[in-house]
Amino acid sequence: MATAIENLKSIKQGAIQDLIEKGLLSSTRIYVGMSTCEIAAGSKDVWDTFQKEIADNSIKDVQLKQKGCAGRCNLEPTVEVLQAGKVPFKYINVNSAKAKEIIKKHLLENSVQSAERSESLKTDPFMLTDRSKFVFGDVDFFSKQKRITLRNCGIIDPESIDDYLSVRGYESLAKVLTDYTPGQVIEEITKSGLRGRGGGGFPTGLKWKLVAQEEEKEKYIICNADEGDPGAFMDRSALEGDPHIVIEGMVIAGYAIGAKKGFVYIRAEYPLAIDRLRIAIKDAEKNGFLGKKILGTDFDFDIELVLGAGAFVCGEETALIHSIEGGRGVPTIKPPYPAARGLWNKPTLINNVETFANIGVIILDGYENFALIGTKESKGTKVFALSGKVNNTGLIEVPMGITLREIVYDIGGGIKDNKKFKALLTGGPSGGCIPEEFLDSTVDYDSLKSLGSIMGSGGMIVLDEDDCMIDIARYFLEFTQNESCGKCTPCREGTKRMLEILTKITAGNGEEEDIEKLMRLANLIKKTALCGLGQSAPNPVLTTMKYFKNEYDEHVRLKKCRAAVCKGIISSPCQHSCFIGGSGIPSYIGLIAQEKFDKAVKILYSENPLPIICGRVCHHPCESKCRRGKIDKPIAIREIKRFLTDYAMENKMDGMPVAGDEKEGKVAVIGSGPAGLTCAYYLALEGYKVTIFEKLPVAGGMLAVAIPEYRLPKALLKYEINNILSLGIQLKLNTEVGKDISFSDIKKEFKAIFIAAGAHKGLKLGIPGEDLPGVIDAVELLRDINLGIKINIGQKAAVIGGGNAAIDAVRTLNRLGVKAELLYRRTKNEMPAWQEEIDEAIKEGINIQYLVAPVRAIAENGRIKKLECIRMELGGIDKSGRRRPVPKEGSEFIIEIDTLVPAISQEPDIDFVTSGNGDGIKLSKWKTIEVNDETYYTGSDGIFAGGDVVLGPKTVTEAMSHGKVAAGMIDKYIKGEELTRKYSVTKPAVDVAIVEMTEEEIESLERFDIPMLEMSQRKGNFIETELGFSMHQAVCEAKHCLRCDKEEKE
Amino acid sequence: MSDTIKINVNNKDYDVEAGQTIMQALDKIGFHIPRLCYHPKLSVEGACRICIVEVEGAANYVTSCTAKVAAGMKVRTNTADLRKARRDLLELILDNHPIDCNTCERDSNCELQGLSRSIGIKKRHFTGEKKLYDIDLSSPSITRDPNKCILCGRCVRLCAEIQGVNAINFAGRGFNSVVMTAYNNPISRSVCINCGQCINVCPTAALSEKYYTVELFRELSSDKKLKIVQVAPAVRAAIGEAFGFPAGTNFEKQTVAALRKLGFDLVFDTQFSADLTIMEEGYEFLERFTTGRDLPMITSCSPAWIKYAEQFHPEILPNISTCKSPMSMMSSVLKTYYAQKRGIDPKDILSVAVMPCTAKKYEAEREELSLDGAKLTDIVVTTREIAWMIKSAGIDLSKTEGEEFDNLFGFSSGAATIFGVTGGVMEAALRTAYEVYMGESIIDIEFAALRGFAGIKEAKVMLGDKEVRVAVAHGLGNANIVIDMIKKDPDRFHFIEIMSCPGGCINGGGQPYAGSEYVALDEELLKKRASVLYALDRAKTIRRSHENPEIQRIYKEFFERPLGPKSHKILHTNYKQKYPTGVYKK
Question: Is A507 on the interface with B (CB under 8 A)?
Answer without folding.
Answer: no
